[in-house]
Amino acid sequence: MLNRIVIVGGGTAGWMTASYIKAAFGDRIDVTLVESGNVGTVGVGEATFSDIRHFFEFLGLKEKDWMPACNATYKLAVRFENWREKGHYFYHPFEQMRSVNGFPLTDWWLQEGPTNRFDKDCFVMSSVIDAGLSPRRLDGSLIDQPFDEGADEMQGLTMSEHQGKTQFPYAYHFEAALLAKYLSRYAVERGVKHIVDDVQHVALDERGWISGVTTGEHGELTGDLFVDCTGFRGLLLNKALEEPFISYQDALPNDSAVALQVPMDMEQRGIRPCTTATAQDAGWIWTIPLMGRVGTGYVYARDYLAPEEAERTLREFVGPAAADVEANHIRMRIGRSRNSWVKNCVGIGLSSGFVEPLESTGIFFIHHAIEQLVKNFPGADWDPTHRDRYNDAIAHVMDGVREFLVLHYVAAKRNDTQYWRDAKKRALPDGLAERLEKWRTQLPDSETVYPYYHGLPPYSYMCILLGMGGIDLKPSPALRLADSGAAQREFDAIRDKGRRLTETLPKAYDYFASMR
Question: Catalytic residue at 75?
Answer without folding.
Answer: yes
